Each structure stands twice: as structure tokens, then as C-alpha cells.
Amino acid sequence: MDMNKEWSFGDFTGMVLLGYPPESFVGRIVGSCFAHETPNTEVFPPETVCEFERCNLDNVKLPPGCVVLGDCSKRRCCAQADGEDWLVDVAGKPLDHVHAAFYRDKATRLRAAGRPTDAAKMDAKLAELDVKARAAGLPAVVAVDEVIR
Amino acid sequence: MAIDAATVFEWRPGTGSNNNGGGYANLNPGTSVDYSQQAAAQLSLADCATSGAGVTTLTSATGGFTAAMAGNCMKFAGGTNFTLTEPFQITVVTDTNTVTLDRSPTPAGAGSSGAGAVGGARAVLVDTFLEALTAGCYHYIKADGTMTLTNPVDVALDGTLAAPMMFTGYQTTRGDNPTGDNRPLIAAAANSFYFDDFYQFFNIRVTTTAANGFRADEKCVFENCSSDNSSGTGSRSGLHCGGSAGAFVDCSASSAAGYAFYCGGGGMRSLHSYAHDSVTGYFNTTFTDGLLWDHCIADTCTTGFDASGGGINYPTFLNCNAYGGTTGIAFGGAEALLLNCEISSNSGTGVTATASCAGYLIDYCNFYNNGTDVSNAVKGPHCTANAPGYTDAAGGDFSLAAGSALLGAGVGLGYGCSTPSTVEQGAWQNGAGAGGGGIVYRPRRYGLQGVN
Question: Do A130 and A91 fall into the same domain?
């Protein structure tokens, strides 16, 4: 499928594009950001048929004719009472801090690579997020050691 | 071994590939050739192999290695036992079938069927790739399309004072130092875009909704950078220095519900920068001493400059503009200094000091059309009350039109050098239009002298 040059490699963060004709989104859209802050935001016309590659589609409700290929981000996340972004389920229930899994994985990798000081930086970030989460009545942000146990 | 500290990486969002090696150091002068500044890899192989775990000798029956490839980086996209997330550097080319890498690409066992690429520009910044580098590495980012992040970039690896990590944006040719929309754009959205200590950024634009915006920590430098945080969640930042002794130089930033510029440490310098359309233009956490704002503009921010937190001492404001907000400048602590500032059209108070402020000097400043000019403070004898005569304040152009009463109304601040006896009030903008100082950029490595 040919690359859609009009909508590739662009920054459309927070934009609603429902006013554009569906035909303008044909082909493969590469490397663009369409992310929103509110889950299930309708961004594209419902008749849109296209492919996405290396795009940020966080919180975007895609029409059925769209196909998500490799290296795209398609998270459902939104800000919670701690001021941080959290992954949420379909009902909007907060599940985990949006970067918690990243920090946990990274701490593990850095330790394995013999970089305990840098791994501790990730632990500190998780601990800081955990304090904020608990203060706001959110689920704990689990640290790497607890996962290992 | 490790990636050489003099390695320069090339990032091209629109034409590069994250399967490419992307980096080059001139390890064999006169023989090495830079293959990173091209879209396609110079050599792509599918049969790379090593003889065991931890072995740095890489072989390929297909071959194609040349002596010129020494110093170029390789990246592996597949194969048995190959590390796929990091770059490896060719240090020695033995022959067309054999090279030595800076470290083993197969730490867990013998490698086979490795899909490796030599050279070629990379596309999108990736956390694991950046973590594998060495202090001192330099990065060029070309403006050939938006770089969209689909994962966090939250780098724990530090630079050093003598060997900072540097990222420089360019438009067409390395070193062309673009301004405005000609700078490369990184769309981070909710992804963390966070670097640890001793990072320096030049000529880069970022859009974000993340809590920390575009952030670096201790002794970071942002020059000719912009970051706009469009999040509706409060207290998020546009440009963020999380450590001490950093600098914002000729930058612009906004945060719709938070801080355009956020300083988390003392000794922070903000020079020739432009904050706009934010809850707070320039914000400092408590206990941050020695702050300097020089020729900075806060345009339509609820609070233009906020240095009022407990323990903030010695804030200095020189030739700053606080325009169109509710509170122009708020400060506290001891020995605050405001000279040559222009504070106008703030619906609340132009300058407010905390009641506990031990001492301050506000002089040669212009106050105009504020709800109240000062609170808990007294204007010096040389303060004025003139219409500023901006070229186009509503359009973000705070240069002074011909005939402005602010021209020559300030006081010279030179130390041991020839300076005019008077200068203008407010920030220089030199008619360069909206969004900052309009000075000429020469990206430099900030080090032991200068800003450090």
C-alpha cells in the first residue's frame, strides 16, 4: 500500500479530523501523532480505510476500516487525581501508571547490565509515583522488587 | 569497550530507519568514511555470526565489509542470540568477511543468522538505543518530518560536565541552526521525554502532553528550543530543568494548564526566552537560590514569573517583560533585584513580593496599565510609567517601535567593559518577530567556562 504523504510524518496531536473527506486518509499513514488525552476520541471519519505504521494513536477510536501495523502506540490512558497519566480499562478504571511497566522493565535491564545506580533512578521514579498514587487513592504503583517477589 | 565518546549519530524521522546503525566516529583517520549521513544502510547482511557468548568478532559469509567502515555503527534487527536494541561500533575491519565490534552483540551465546546493517541514518529516538551510548556522544536531528514517539524516552545515562550529551537540530545541512518551524519537531504526546544529567539541546521543537514535558536534569542546557504542552491537566511543564545550574537560552515554551518553564534547582539561568499562554510563565520550586532571568518575556501567563516559594533567595530579573497576565512578577527571599523590566497590562499586580522579603531593589522599571503596580514593595526613584510602544504585543512581538519611551530609559549593567550608559527597558527582540530574542545561534558545548 502506498504511503499517504499528506498525513505521514505530521503532528496532529489533539486534533479532530472528522471534517476531512475519508478519501484523504487512504493508503498507509506513517510516523504521525494523532494522540488525544481523552479515551475513545473519534478523530477520523467513520468511513476511513487506511493503515497506520509507527503512529501514536493513543486514545484514538479508530473506524473499523483501519488497520494498525507495527510500532504504533494505541493506549487507553488519561490523567488521574495524582496528576499523572494512567492506563485505564474500558470503563475508565485506572489500572497502572502509564510508564510504570516501562520503569520496571528498565530497572531490571539496567541491573542486568551492571548499572545499579541507573536502575535505582527507575526505582526512585516508581517510588515517587507510588507516593502520589496512594495519596490520591489510586492503586499502588508496584516497584520492581515487588514484581520479582 | 563501548561506543566511542566522539561518535556522532544522525536522526532523520522521514527517511531514516531504526534498523540502521546511525552513528560514526573517525576511528581510522584517512580511511574511515561516514555512512551515517545517508538514508539507506551502506551494507545489509542476513548471515552475521559470532562464535560464542561475549565474542566481539563478527563474521559474515556473504561479506562486504570494507576498511572505510571502521567507526561506523551496526544495528541488528534479527538473528539468534543477537542484541536487537543497541548499536555496536566497528572498531577493526579484518577483511571483507570479518570485523571486530566495540563489544559483543551476542552476550548470551553464539550468534547466527544475524540481520545487521552498517551505517544509514536512524529515524526515531529509542530509549534502549540511547542508554547504550557513552558520555560525549553527539546527535544531529534533521527536520525531514515529524519524529513521533510511540514509547517513552527516559534516559538514565548521564553525560558529564566535560562530555555532555548533545542533540542539535538542523534543517538541511548540519550546522545551519534553523529557527521557528524550520527546526525539527518531536511529537511526544503522553510519552515521557526525559534526560538525566548533563544533556544539551539545540534547535529542537517538541509538542507534548506529558507531566514533565521536555525535561533534562542537572546542568542541562536548552538553546533555541521550544516545547508546548497542550495538556488540560494542571501543573505540567513545557520545558523543564529538574536539576541545578541549567540554562534556557533563547527558548520558547507554553503549558496550557501549567508551567511554560520549570526550574527545579538553584543557579538556573533563563536568557532571551519567551513564555506564553500558560498558567505560569517561569516557575521555580522552593529553595532554589541564585536564579537569573535576563531579557525574558512572559506573555499572557496568569503569573509571568514565580519566584515566591519559600527559601528562594537572590532572584534577579534584568530587562524582563511581564505582559498581559494577572500577576507579572512574584518574588520572595532576600536581595531580590529587578532592573530595566517592563511590567504592563497585568490585571492584578505588576510586581508582588512576599511579606517576608528581606530586601530588594526595583528600579529603572516601567509600570503601565496594571491593576496595581506593586504589592509589598516600593518602586525605585527611576521607575517610569510610560506606554511601552511595543511593535505588536498582541502578536507576540515585544520589540520597541521607533519613538518608544522605553528606548534609553534603562540603566547600563556593564562590568569592566564598554557599555552604553543607558539601555532600553524590557527585553531585546531586535524586530525579529514573535517568540523570543531573535539572536543568532551558534550551538556550543557548554563546559567548564561559561554556563555550567
Answer: yes
Express as a percent the part of chain B with pLDDT over 90.
82
Strand partners, B375: B352
* Beta-carbon separation of A73 and B151 below 8 A: yes
pLDDT value at residue B219 = 93
CB contact under 8 A, B233 and A79: yes
Judged by CB atoms within 8 Å, which residues 226-285 of B form the interface with A? Answer: 230-236
Residue B229: list chain A partners with CB under 8 A.
none
A110/chain B closest Cα distance in angstroms = 9
Q: CB of B149 within 8 Å of any CB in chain A?
A: yes
Distance from CA of B53 to the nearest CA of A (A): 15
A41-80 pLDDT tens trace: 999 999 999 999 999 999 999 999 999 998 999 999 999 9
Instruction: Judge if A5 and A66 occupy the same domain.
Output: yes
Please check whether residues A56 and A101 belong to one and the same domain: no
pLDDT tens column, B394-440:
988 898 999 999 998 998 865 444 444 567 777 765 434 444 443 33
Interface membership of B197 toward A (CB under 8 Å): no
Residue B148 amino acid letter = T
Q: What is the DSSP string of B279-322?
A: EEEEEE-SS--S-EEES-EEEEEEEEEEE-STT----EEES-EE
CATH number for the domain whose boundaries are B16-118: 2.40.30
Q: How high is the pLDDT of residue B444? A: 46
CA gap A127, A115 in Å, rounded: 19
Whether residues A68 and A108 share a domain: the answer is no
Q: Which residues span the domain enclosing A128? A: 78-148
Round the CA-based radius of gyration of chain A to a whole number and report it: 18
Structure confidence at residue A142 (pLDDT): 86
Euclidean distance between CA atoms A99 and B190, whole angstroms? 10
CATH of domain B132-400: 2.160.20.10
Alpha helices, DSSP H, located in B362-425:
none
Q: Tell me which chain A residues have a C-beta less than 8 angstroms from the C-beta of B209.
A: 13-14, 35, 37, 85
User: Residues A144, A92: one domain?
Assistant: yes
Which SS3 state, helix, strand or coil, does residue B343 take?
strand
